[in-house]
Design goal:
Layout lengths: L1 H14 L2 E3 H7 L5 H13 L3 E4 L2 E4 L11 H4 L4 H11 L8 E4 L18 E4 L2 H10 L3 E4 L3 E3 L4 E3 L1 H8 L5 E4 L3 E3 L3 E4 L2 H13 L2 E5 L11 E4 L6 E4 L5 H9 L3 E4 L3
Parallel strand pairs: 4-5, 4-9, 5-6, 9-12, 12-14, 14-15
Antiparallel strand pairs: 1-3, 2-3, 7-8, 10-11, 11-13
Helix pairs in contact: 7-8
Length: 256
């Protein structure tokens, strides 16, 4: 009965973006709510679902891969990404707790990190290894599920880890920016993680090449109310530029 119940829940996760505890209680009237919550935790542990308030979201429906793999992105717009990262490195402050997001643009920032007293936390294993080679910086790598395509660590465990970390300066990369949706990504788990970081940080620095401008993906992790600095390589469209001024977001165009 135990295995049969979980197979039925798995089947639901394959066809529905969200299943509620109430729905499961109606489907399995002889099973306690506590047991059904443990079932959801099981599917979260094997990365088939994410536990949310009132039920679970299916991983099948919460990932929208729009940018291609990290290996592909690392070879795109290399000069622009390097210029953005070099300018972002000017916001590093010694003695601070600094979060470095995963992403092809942020991998360029490591070469501009001086051998000094920093404490870095990152979801990017490759960046963590390179930061360790510098010498003096302390490097924390977030624990959780490793996303094969993006080479980043995501999931509920990663988000819980970050909730216990103090963050002073955060460097974040979106997959899109629009006046209507703000800073967006295509992966729900990644969105939740970035949102936690953006809300905790004293200074939020967004790194974004021009291909992401006027692009909207399903999940919003920040807005101009949350961001403090936006570094890009092209002028913002008028509507976004006005919004940045209204919200006192400093926009740096490295192509100027």
């Amino acid at each position: 009965m135990y295995n049969e119940r979980r197979e039925q829940i798995r089947a639901l996760l394959q066809v529905k973006p969200f299943i509620s505890i109430k729905e499961l209680e109606a489907l399995f009237p002889d099973v306690s709510g506590m047991t059904l919550r443990r079932d959801i935790e099981y599917f979260e542990s094997i990365h088939e679902a994410i536990k949310v308030r009132g039920g679970a979201r299916s991983m099948k429906f919460i990932t929208t891969q729009t940018d291609g793999s990290i290996a592909t992105r690392m070879n795109e717009n290399v000069r622009s990404k390097d210029s953005i990262a070099q300018r972002a490195a000017e916001f590093l402050e010694t003695g601070r707790s600094i979060f470095i997001d995963s992403g092809s643009t942020l991998q360029h920032i490591v070469q501009y990190v001086p051998n000094d007293r920093f404490t870095f936390t990152t979801t990017d294993p490759a960046a963590a290894l390179e930061l360790c080679k510098i010498g003096m910086p302390i490097v924390n790598i977030v624990g959780g599920r490793l996303d094969h395509d993006n080479q980043t660590i995501t999931g509920a465990q990663a988000t819980r880890f970050l909730q216990d970390i103090n963050i002073d300066i955060a460097f974040l990369c979106p997959s899109g920016l629009s006046s209507r949706s703000g800073f967006t990504v295509g992966n729900y788990s990644e969105c939740e993680l970035k949102r936690v970081v953006a809300e905790k940080a004293r200074l939020v620095v967004i790194l974004m090449d021009a291909s992401k401008i006027d692009r909207s993906l399903p999940y919003t992790f920040a807005s101009f109310d949350t961001a403090h600095v936006l570094i890009t390589n092209a002028p913002l469209p008028p509507e976004l530029a006005r919004l940045a001024v209204q919200k006192d977001v400093r926009v740096i165009n490295v192509s100027d």
